[in-house]
From TrEMBL:
Species for this entry: Panagrellus redivivus
Name of the protein in question: BTB domain-containing protein
InterPro entries assigned to the protein according to its UniProt record, in alphabetical order: AtSIBP1-like (IPR044714), BTB/POZ_dom (IPR000210), SKP1/BTB/POZ_sf (IPR011333)
Pfam families the record matches: BTB
Domain of life: Eukaryota
Upper taxonomic lineage: Eukaryota, Metazoa, Ecdysozoa, Nematoda, Chromadorea
Domain BTB: 145-212
Amino acid sequence: MATTITVKDSVTFTVLKSQLTEKKEGEYFETPKRCIPFSDGLKWLVRWSPVASDYLCYVYLVAEQVTTANMRVTIDGSDKTLMAFGTNDTSVDWIQCASVHYEVLRPVFKNDKLTITCKVQLDISVPLTMNEKPHLFESCEHMPTDFELIVGSDRLPVHKNFLSFISPVFHAMFLHETAESQSENVEITDVGFDTVTAAIDYCYGRQLQNPTAESIVDILRFADKYNIKAITSPLEKIPMISMSVENFSAIVHYAYDCSKEALFTECTNFYKQHENDIKKVEKFGKLPPQLVTELLKDAFSLNTNFDVLRHAHKTGLMFVVTYLEKPLLDSLTLEDFYPTVKYAWEYSRNDLKKVCLDLLNARRMEVTTKKEFVNLPGEIVLDMMKLSLTDY
């Protein structure tokens, strides 16, 4: 037997102004396929097609084995929301379509680009038991709690043996002669009380209340720390299939901190496609710069920190620039001198120029007799030698 569940998801993509006339009629652009949660591998995507003959841009929803669907299309910079319509035509592979006139799009292009977001609601058929899970908490009501998880000033009552069942970390903590084994509580750090409550409630069999990708990531962080497979097994795919421009920062931070290699690889692919939109999100600018450095290397096949510096400078990621320039400013080595000179002069980084000149003046013979110095661009060498004789 089967039942129907409703799944919500969204995708954001960028449209270039040139693309309105780039494709011939009948040709189209597509977003990457996204997995439909709980569907055992079914996928959906958005296809969009500009048709110059009637000055309309069509947005299509394509989904596998979906019974019914709804799609709303929003355009960044416009207050217009497009409601899609369905079709009974079995000869087409799309199930929803929306259209917008070129004249609506043209005013909202910024730097010849605009962003379109498609929010979809998909009804899929799943086995009747798929959405069912044991409500363990109902079987524990006759047993008083005997332990507390302390998060800041808040306390969460739990069953100590239950913690041992779900977490080998808690089990080891209680098994050996530790302060926790002799106590009736343990302090939880680095995770909020709401997250801990949601995680433990989920293990007890309660439904997550209004889950978002960000809240799922927080729960997964807690589960990763305490090795709770009852959480990670069913939830670990959700960040990958629900990734968006808005929640990207939380997901990539989790993937990096918890060494989730497959998820981090998915993040690098997503970032490469959506860099212009992601870098505008405030939370992205607050990520650890070491993380973003690794992200840029993987996403754009950048081999060295100087490659990253150039990319970060061109794309305005100045917090990454500051992070990578600091060790050069603090203690420039002879090995880094030559690539630093090229970068500093290419991008007019005056503080770095001064550091390079200081090293040149201090070790002139050693610096100028190496092959790397001879290979520097002539105009840079000439300017550097002139400046080295001044009080730059």
